[in-house]
Amino acid sequence: MDADVVVVGAGLAGLQCARRLQRNGLTVQIFESSDGVGGRVRTDRIDGFLCDRGFQLLNPAYPAVRSFIDVPSLDLQAFGAGVMVRKGQRLTTLRASLNQLGTEVSALSSGMLRPKEIRGLLRWLGPTLLRPSSASRATRDSTLADSLDAARVTGALRRDVIDTFLAGVLADSTGASSANYARLLMRSFVGAIPGLPRNGMAALPEQMAASLESQVHLNTAVRDLRETDNSVEVDTGKGRIRARFAVTAVGAEDLEELTGEKTPSTRGLTTWWFQAPEPPLEDPLLVLDASAPRGGPDGPVWHTAVVSNAAPSYAPVGSALIQATTLLDRPDGLADEREVRQHLERIYATSTRQWQVLINHQLPHALPASAPPLIDRSVQRISERMFVCGDHRDTGSIQGALVSGDRAAQGVAGILAPAPRRSNNEPIVKR
Question: Which string of DSSP letters, residue by residue, matches 319-359?
Answer without folding.
Answer: -EEEEEEEETTSGGGG--HHHHHHHHHHHHTS--TT-EEEE
